[in-house]
Amino acid sequence: MKKRIGIVLLVIALLTGCKHLSIEDKIYRQLVKQLQQQETFDQKFPFDININIERLTKYEITYHLVIDNFDQDINDIQAIVIHDQKTEDVYPSVGIYEDRIDLTKENKKGILLVGYIDYKKDIKNFKGTFKAKITYKKDKKEITKFYSKQY
């Protein structure tokens, strides 16, 4: 009897352990959920931000979130972009699964997040909404900006 109880406890422990998410996975899922529910978006940014789409293959389009032309130094950048299309892919991000990054106005580098969407129709007929969340520090103060673009 004790042996059976031990085996049952071991199986429960193994099954429970398989569902454990890393801290990064929890942050990622929380950010995706927050963006899906986000309804208000910023109009002014201390950088240029845009999302472009283009045909990649006959069955797929690609989208690019570009953040560049900083008018001030910003540090500890974390960004993620999502869309409202059916997908099984992960959404592109920076600063969640890897270290956050710093960008300076002198550096002339920016951020490029790239994702893919299955889409067979003419790209001119694409209808979708993209949302992005960008968090960064300026003068040791954390700032969060939300961006949205509809096609």
- By secondary-structure content and strand pairing, the structural class works out as alpha+beta
Uncertain regions spanning at least 5 consecutive residues: 2-16
* Contiguous helical run count: 2
Instruction: Determine Rg (CA atoms, Å).
Output: 20 Å
First and last CA, distance: 63 Å
Brief summary of the model shown:
With 151 residues, the protein is of the alpha+beta class.
Structure report:
This protein is an alpha+beta fold. Helix content is 21%, strand content 41%. It is globular and about 45 Å long. The model is unreliable at 2-16 (pLDDT under 50).
Record keyword descriptors for this entry:
single chain; 151 residues; alpha+beta; 5-stranded antiparallel sheet; 3-stranded antiparallel sheet; 8 strands; disordered N terminus
List the helices and strands and how they pair.
Blueprint: H1 2-18, H2 23-37, E1 48-57, E2 60-68, E3 74-83, E4 93-94, E5 101-103, E6 111-118, E7 129-138, E8 141-150
Antiparallel strand pairs: 1-2, 2-6, 3-4, 3-5, 3-7, 7-8
